[in-house]
């Protein structure tokens, strides 16, 4: 656990697996946004057993940052899954507020502003959504993948008793207390970790709000699905309550 006396106003955690190509564009946009703001910020890139130069790319980029932005890269092996990367990064982040976002920059960082506003009013977690009024999807997933995603979302919400219409959007802001408490408890390492985090949040009484974002699907996705992986995701979703019986 990090020192409670953080020098940063906001931490941004970016989970990565073989993201050496896309990461510079995302860091460019992130640093351009943060560098123009007052306050101090840290960016934590977590390389989840990457086989390319993700770590070297991040470290080289972090050598020349604005004075109010700090960056570091955490890498471990072997590859374990997005859930593991975020558990590591979120528990390492030291700011009072911690955002995680995807390495493809699917949601512009300008949507940090409404997320911050919700936390200002007393919410513990603000999650970006592609499924509520006001959302703007600029580039859709394939027809089949989008329909399967909606079907899975419906099953997950029903089974886990979640209120959010979109649990999987990779743009979520937490208070440090909520982030450290929830991610310290997570057990799953796969992409279904969002459902586990939100299930825990509801169980523990954290206040969660969903807000609309602009979202663009990147066809160069690091997460691909086949029958075996799809069945594993369903299995992981089904066992979430049983992982926390104690």
Task: Provide structural commentary.
By secondary structure, this protein is α/β, with parallel strands linked by helices. The protein has one domain (10-243): Spore Coat Polysaccharide Biosynthesis Protein SpsA, Chain A, CATH 3.90.550.10. 40% of the residues lie in helices and 20% in strands. The chain is built from eight helices and nine strands. The chain has helices at residues 23-35, 54-61, 82-92, 112-120, 143-160, 176-185, 193-204, 227-243; strands at 10-16, 41-48, 69-76, 97-101, 125-129, 136-139, 171-175, 208-212, 214-216. The strands form two sheets. Strands 3-2-1-4-7-5-8 form a seven-stranded mixed beta sheet, with helices on both faces. β1, α1 (23-35) and β2 (41-48) form a beta-alpha-beta unit. α5 runs parallel beside α8 (227-243). The longest helix is centred in the middle third of the chain and has 18 residues, at 143-160. The model has no long low-confidence stretch (mean pLDDT 93).
SSE inventory with pairings:
Blueprint lengths: L9 E7 L6 H13 L5 E8 L5 H8 L7 E8 L5 H11 L4 E5 L10 H9 L4 E5 L6 E4 L3 H18 L10 E5 H10 L7 H12 L3 E5 L1 E3 L10 H17 L3
Parallel strand pairs: 1-2, 1-4, 2-3, 5-8, 6-9
Antiparallel strand pairs: 4-7, 5-7
Helix pairs in contact: 3-6, 5-8
